C-alpha cells in the first residue's frame, strides 16, 4: 500500500472532531441515530462516524482502468453510531429498519455472501478490511460491537451509498479498536475491501469519501493514489437529479462485465503493441508501456480492434488460451457465462473519457469567459459516450439528460456506474430556480411514482468534506 501523501492542500490529517463542532443539520441526524442506538442497545454510543457519498463530475468507468477521475463529496452521508459491547457479537441495526433489517453475527463466523448481497455485508466489508489490515491477533471474545446506521445518500443511485457505508464501517472499526491508519491508507483499503461484495470496482468512491475537503472537487489519480484540489469556476452550480431507476451493482453483472471487457481489450491491445501481456493489466498500462499519448490511443484502438463483438472463441485464439484458462484467469464469478465482448467500443470510451478528464481540469484552472460552456460540453460528450460506446445508460436517464439541457443546463450527464441512478448538470446560477421548476414539471410529474420522492430526488450541491469521527 502506498505511503505517498496526497498532493494539493490537504490540511487536516486527523479524523477526530468534537461533536460540538458538527453543523446543526448534522447534529439532528446524529440525535436520530443516537436515539435509535439507545432504543436498541439500552445505552449511548461511544462515538459517531460520518462518510459522505459523492458525485462524479467527469471520468466514468475509467478508475478501474487506471485513469484519473474528477469527483466531489456531497452533503448526504452514512452515519454510524458505535460502542464496544464486551461480547463476541457484532449487532447491526439501521434507522430505516423496514428496508434494512437488524443483523447479528459472531466474530468467529463472519461471512460476506457476494451471491446474495445484503446491506450488512457492505458494513462487514469495511469491518473485515480493517481487521485484516491490522491482523486479527488482537480480536478477542470480548471485541464485539453494537452499531446503528443512518444513511441519507440515495441508495443504488450512482452517488456511492455503498462506498460511504464501507468507508464509515472501516473508520468506525479503526477507532473502536484504537488502530492508527492514515487517511490515504484508509481510502486504499476501503476500496480493496468493497470488492468482497463481488464488484471489481475502482478506487474513486473511497478516495473522495475519505479525502474530500470542503470547497473543492478533486482530481484523483491512482497508482499511487494522489489527489489534487481543483476549484470549480464561479457562476454555475452542479445540480443532481435522480432518475429514480435503482440499480444494485453487486446484485447484477453489468458492472463486472464492463470490467472484464476492459481487461480483454487491454490484453489484445498489449499483444498487438508487442508488450509483455503479463505486465499489463489495465488500459492505462498499454498506453504507458507503448508510450503513446492518451489522445492518440483512439487511433490505436481503431487499428487493432474490430467493431463487431468478439466471440469467446476468438478471444481465446488471439490470447492463445484454452477456454478453461480464459475462464479462470480473466473472468469473475458472475461473468463466467459471457460469450461475447464489445472491446472496440469500451476501449474507445475509456481513452476518450480519460482525455476529457484532463481537459476538464485544465479548463477549471485556466478560467476564461467560455470556461462554463466548455465544461458543459465535455459533460454532455461524456454522457453520449456512456450511452453509445459504454452502454451504461438507461432510457430514463437519457430522457432526464435531455430535459436538463432543455431546462437551461450547460451540460448534463449520468454520474456513477449508470444503468439507472442520477444525472449531474452544470446550471448557471441565474437559471437554477427555473431549472428546478422545469424538471419537476417535465420529469417528476410525468412519472407519477416519483411524486413522493421529489424532496430528495433533485438538489443543487457543492463540494463537501470527507469522513469524520465525532466524539463528545
Ligand atoms: P450506489 O450507487 O448507491 O453505491 P450500490 O448498488 O453500489 O449503489 O449499493 C447500494 C447498496 O448499498 C444498497 O442495496 C444497500 O445494500 C447499501 N446501502 C446503501 N445505503 C444504505 C443505508 N442507508 N443503509 C444500509 N445499507 C445501505
Ligand atoms: P457506484 O455507482 O457508486 O457504485 C461505481 C464504482 C466506481 C466507478 C463508477 C463508475 C465501486 C465501489 N464503485 O460507482 O469505482 O467505477 O462506478 O465510474 O465499485
Ligand atoms: Mg456503489
From TrEMBL:
NCBIfam families listed in its UniProt record: gal_kin
Protein origin, superkingdom: Eukaryota
Keyword ATP-binding: yes
Domain GHMP kinase C-terminal: 371-444
Record keyword Transcription present: no
All copies of domain GHMP kinase N-terminal, residue ranges: 138-211
Gene3D superfamilies on file: 1.20.1440.340, 3.30.230.10, 3.30.70.3170
Keywords carried by this UniProt record: ATP-binding, Kinase, Nucleotide-binding, Transferase
UniProt-recorded name of the protein: N-acetylgalactosamine kinase-like isoform X2
Family: Belongs to the GHMP kinase family. GalK subfamily.
Stretches assigned to the Galactokinase N-terminal domain: 36-83
Pfam family, one: GHMP_kinases_C
